[in-house]
Design a protein that fits this description.
Helix content is 46%, strand content 13%. With 296 residues, the chain is α/β, with parallel strands linked by helices. It has one domain: TIM Barrel, CATH 3.20.20. The protein is globular, with a radius of gyration of 18 Å.
Length: 296
């Protein structure tokens, strides 16, 4: 499996009783597919994986696989700071029929580089589903280093890394390492919407996007044009979307994204505690960006 294009890190819609909104998930999936995305991700960190139960996570994976029905790539959020828990979730994603599993680097316990390698090696030896490594040091406290990425990329079924370290020099180092290993099958995927264009210019193959929840058509067009080498058009769209890229992170993700979707009358609902609603003074900022983009 080759990972490429725009994959949406979907929010998890909740109803007024704080229950996962199955109808809303299905509506959002079809909305995204109709607007040209190449894949959807359920139960990732943007989907509030830290505060949904494992039962809810498994249910969401089932809903996603059923609703996508092979039309685009279906990717299951399946990480944990416990290797045993991660293995259980990856096995479930495989059994459910997901195309791949996204596995975040274990958080809080700050494993050493050899511990991270063993974590992913164990997952690949115990399952057959393609696995995407997710590196987001601002959230996990651990940054998987370039040498370890090179080693992990050589493991069977590890197909990509979602790289959310904002250091573009590190992206160059990763690409250089992969080239030195002759590894042309492993994909580097942007984990930051605002860095997607420069990362593609360095050799990345797409994005796992928060912004695409809100504006999937334009984000998909940005990525598609960049991958096809039309950097003038990709740059035009990048700057058209730039204010949205910034405003979606004025508070902790996915608080602004859910606020935007609610303003657009898309299924989203509240965030789960300990996250709180967007501050009142920030709501007009989100609304103005949506109006400027004619999304509301």
């Amino acid at each position: 499996m080759k990972l490429e294009g725009t994959i949406v890190a979907m929010v998890t819609p909740f109803n007024d009783e704080d229950v996962v909104d199955e109808t809303g998930i299905r509506e959002n999936i079809n909305y995204l597919i109709d607007r040209g995305v190449e894949g959807v991700l359920a139960a990732g960190t943007t989907g509030e994986s830290a505060t949904i139960t494992h039962d809810e996570q498994r249910k969401m994976i089932d809903i996603m696989v059923d609703e996508v029905n092979g039309r685009v790539k279906s990717i299951a959020g399946a990480g944990s700071n416990s290797s045993k828990e991660a293995l259980g979730l990856v096995k479930y994603a495989e059994k459910a029929g997901a195309d791949a599993a996204l596995v975040i680097t274990p958080y809080y316990n700050k494993p050493q580089p050899h511990g991270l390698y063993e974590h992913y090696r164990m997952l690949t030896e115990s399952t057959n589903i393609p696995i995407i490594v997710y590196n987001v040091p601002s959230r996990t406290g651990t940054d998987i280093d370039v040498d370890t990425i090179g080693k992990v990329a050589e493991l069977d079924n590890i197909i990509a890394i979602k790289e959310a370290n904002p250091d573009l020099d590190k992206v160059s180092q990763i690409m250089k390492k992969l080239k030195s290993l002759g590894n042309n099958d492993f994909s580097v995927i942007s984990g930051n919407d605002n860095l997607t264009l420069p990362m593609i210019s360095l050799g990345a193959k797409g994005v796992i996007s928060v912004l695409a929840n809100v504006d999937p058509a334009r984000m998909s067009a940005l990525v598609r044009n960049a991958l096809e080498g039309d950097y003038n058009e990709a740059q035009r769209i990048h700057y058209e979307l730039y204010d949205l890229m910034k405003v979606l992170f004025i508070e902790s993700n996915p608080v602004p994204a859910k606020t935007a979707l609610n303003l657009m009358n898309r299924p989203a609902g509240n965030v789960r505690m300990p996250l709180g609603s967007l501050k009142e003074e920030n709501k007009p900022r989100v609304k103005k960006v949506l109006q400027d983009l004619k999304l509301i």
